[in-house]
Amino acid sequence: MPGIVVFRRRWSVGSDDLVLPAIFLFLLHTTWFVILSVVLFGLVYNPNEACSLNLVDHGRGYLGILLSCMIAEMAIIWLSMRGGILYTEPRESMQYVLYVRLAILVIEFIYAIVGIVWLTQYYTSCNDLTAKNVTLGMVVCNWVVILSVCITVLCVFDPTGRTFVKLRATKRRQRNLRTYNLRHRLEEGQATSWSRRLKVFLCCTRTKDSQSDAYSEIAYLFAEFFRDLDIVPSDIIAGLVLLRQRQRAKRNAVLDEANNDILTFLSGMPVTRNTKYLDLKNSQEMLRYKEVCYYMLFALAAYGWPMYLMRKPACGLCQLARSCSCCLCPTRPRFAPGVTIEEDNCCGCNAIAIRRHFLDENMTAVDIVYTSCHDAVYETPFYVAVDHDKKKVVISIRGTLSPKDALTDLTGDAERLPVEGHHGTWLGHKGMVLSAEYIKKKLEQEMVLSQAFGRDLGRGTKHYGLIVVGHSLGAGTAAILSFLLRPQYPTLKCFAYSPPGGLLSEDAMEYSKEFVTAVVLGKDLVPRIGLSQLEGFRRQLLDVLQRSTKPKWRIIVGATKCIPKSELPEEVEVATLASTRLWTHPSDLTIALSASTPLYPPGRIIHVVHNHPAEQCCCCEQEEPTYFAIWGDNKAFNEVIISPAMLHEHLPYVVMEGLNKVLENYNKGKTALLSAAKVMVSPTEVDLTPELIFQQQPLPTGPPMPAGLARELPAADHRNSVRSKSQSEMSLEGFSEGRLLSPVAPPAAA
């Protein structure tokens, strides 16, 4: 950081990124130097063999090349480990060392050609087996190094590198025509470069007009995000490490403060006395939560055979193979009559996996009416089912599972919702608005809902309700599809699991609370990501990079368990930085970012959070986290919480497990209280609501409380003693343990 300039061109690699490549080459060349020295000077060669004499001369010259390589690579390692991410002065001579190393590489290339010539002349006629093997080894080693360097150069090549250097050479903040033209060329070049990368990534797919439009829009998005930034990929990795450290430090600092309303953090979210937990002791609330858990099964089934095999890798394959009939065996009936399957593979694996999913869950009353496996940009797979037990027709939309789905995800500009009878300015995620329009059009053209509601008139399917569900991309599309269908089906309900953060404008989000229930698990990244959220994330990332004084290799290695956490680089608060450590463009942190309409997650949000028990030693059993369900604020998901779990907790089966664990922990807490009181009471007679933790009234003198609850009482002096823990996310293990605690007495005076 910034990108190194070699041959008057900027490259997509920093001068502090060369530590590992140089160490690898140094070890390779050192090993080969030792082996070649032993072979050349430790063995006796036949002086009458011309091939042996040529080998000795060639090998001695190659030893000199290896020694030169080792010296240059040691210099690269030493220089690359100096300075900090932005403190590049100690590495300014790196480009000259690279020039020397490239000159040596040219000599290596010449020696590799000479080695090939020797092999063609003497390999068959030479009787010295050692000479032949040594020469072959030198040639192979040479070409491996040369090809690896060439591939690395291609990977770090920046097509806009020369324009970037010219722009940097202009005076800072200069507003003349030349600066404007260079900036325009740079932006166009970056957009073209990103578009080319996307096309290479999706080279095996057939390109439609909509896909080409998606390429250009997403390329512009990436070019806009990285505009005016002289950063390389490793800087982003180091920035994420530093940002995670900063977030943890801030949470610890908040907990150590004496006067604030935040009592603890669960999954990175602050918990206060005003935090609203789901009142699961309330029968209506419990039924609603169980309904949320139930329809997650429909969202999970939409992923077809890939997710089915991921959840059941052994027996799942056998189940699918037993029910599957490929085009080689057309005589076996594959689907029940009245089921429409569109664009499934020749074995019908997706439709069969959906059906097997419900059979495995003992949901035999679910009939699949229509399954569309058609997958394209802005055209998402979905299926329609009739649930006779719940008397509902369910539309389930698949989440992201293909590169085309990723293009739909990334087309995140604001688009007007085409809702009948509404003339306001409801806005939504463009890619998902187009996907919802496609599904609505498909339902109307194929008359799918008419078939579903007329499936079995004798069982009253005509009067069934309509449910729309989805996960991730499917959740956002389901929420917007609910807007489009609600004029025809006013009693419609939508369940959106892990929806994207940049989905609906504020007015549309408020309206969606009438019929959309969203679920977010823990530190899931997707509900916190939208264009407006990315702008804030960009500022935070640049800020932590600018404040860091540690070498990049130390930061990245410190994120692993290779060194103790106490040696992680600490953030240094610096009020002013030397001009030599500023960004290439002084406006990087103050530049007016592109104005994008703030978009939010949909509906009423159930946020499933959990505590983080302290890590135990390897010989002790790790305590399981305790899960809770709280009502989330749509505008509170505006910060990306950096964590190893931010991607894992987005997986659909992990979301389902988290929902179920809330019920498990609730039942454990109920059992613990009953055991503690040693009385048989109705669950509604014992207040299990976690809000009791944060009540300001004194503890009742009734039945004893579990130990974990008493420790979270908000008395100021008691709270401070609890907050002295090093963990920023505290344990509420009392919900899952049945230990007794006598009523808390006031603390004794010091």
What is the fourth-level CATH superfamily of one domain? Alpha/Beta hydrolase fold, catalytic domain
Q: Measured on Cα atoms, how large is the radius of gyration?
A: 32 Å
Q: Supply the CATH architecture of one domain.
A: 3-Layer(aba) Sandwich
Report the sheet-strand fraction: 5-15%
Mean pLDDT: 79
Q: How many β-strand runs? A: 15
Describe the strand arrangement of the main beta sheet, using strand numbers: 5-6-7-8-11-12-13-14-15
What is the 3D form?
elongated
CATH class of one domain: Alpha Beta
The largest sheet is: 9 strands, mixed
Helix content: 40-55%
CATH topology of one domain: Rossmann fold
Helix count equals: 23
Secondary structural class: alpha/beta
Between the first and last Cα atoms, what is the distance in angstroms?
53 Å
Low-confidence stretches: 571-593, 676-750
GO cellular component, one term: early endosome membrane
InterPro entries: AB_hydrolase_fold, DAG_Lipase-Related, Fungal_lipase-type
GO molecular function, one term: metal ion binding
Subcellular location: Cell projection, Dendritic spine membrane; Early endosome membrane; Postsynaptic density membrane
